[in-house]
């Protein structure tokens, strides 16, 4: 897929971020603004539900379920529509726009139904935009620098996720209990991201002939059936994700083992994000230089080590090591996976296949959360963690034998 950057002089085509195309940087700042907006709401939503509205923790559980399900349902649809009509930017704008509308719906929200609609709409928007946005990133520069491009994007995205809670904290400190102030500022920040996307990212048709047939679901099925590398990446993403537990579960294991105390628990997310932010671009460059499959597998070795360290219960040192390993895992996998996917599929199918891979990841992690939670209830956190570590080690060995993402 061609980008508007290909029509610009080489001097303006490159950004200041290590020869990464300007489109990637703009999309990174769009994600930065969107993540500031989203994480502002995420930081105060539990308090808003239980204190501001007086709803029960069960209500929050319902909302969390909607939050997780919405993105899975929309991912493949957004990617397929973007490819079929060769309009990834238009679908991405629609997805980001739904995020703005979702923040607006929070203002009059007064019950579970309204909150579910707002959070569900936000997740649907995320599902719609992710594949098309990643297709725009993949199409904006040469294949040899995909890892670096995705690393820069994910670094800016993570920076937004770190700044969001800080912004929410500042607003709540200035106006205690004024949740509407947080929601209004969040909506405005998200709106700025949409305007940046509309105004600064141009969309061009793919380089193929203008009368080339549109992709179809049957064509997507033939692509998957006819390319072993595509099938392998889908299966690898699903299998490894099914054994990747969430950050919160790892932090809870540390809490149960007295490696951390309750008052520092919220800082765990921040610390992991800082490591991810620092390592995203270097790992993207390593993936371009030494192979995306190797870096992706190395990332899962890091989370395997994080399981072992967290399960050891060795106090604050174990907690610090777990946080570092978890952040490195994200840096080595989150941007590397779509980069590897984009490199092995035709440009016209990028958004669809990237979305399909991300759906496999989301479904796998959903399964991991359910199975780890059940195993914890039956055997305790330490036994559950070591069981997952053993299973992940076995799957990693199998993935390495079949060539990983290659």
TrEMBL record:
Q: Provide the protein's localization.
A: Cell membrane
Give GO MF terms, alphabetically: transmembrane transporter activity
Q: Which GO terms describe its cellular component?
A: plasma membrane
Start and end residues of each Major facilitator superfamily (MFS) profile domain: 23-406
Primary location: membrane
Top-rank taxon, per record: Bacteria
InterPro entries annotated for this entry? Answer: MFS, MFS_dom, MFS_trans_sf
Keywords assigned by UniProt, alphabetized? Membrane, Transmembrane, Transmembrane helix
| Residues annotated as transmembrane | 16-34, 40-63, 155-175, 181-198, 233-254, 260-283, 295-321, 327-349, 356-378, 384-405
Membrane-protein topology? Multi-pass membrane protein
Q: Which SUPFAM superfamilies match?
A: MFS general substrate transporter
Q: Which PANTHER family match?
A: C-METHYLTRANSFERASE, MAJOR FACILITATOR SUPERFAMILY TRANSPORTER
Q: What is this protein called?
A: MFS transporter
Q: What is the lineage of its organism?
A: Bacteria, Bacillati, Actinomycetota, Actinomycetes, Streptosporangiales
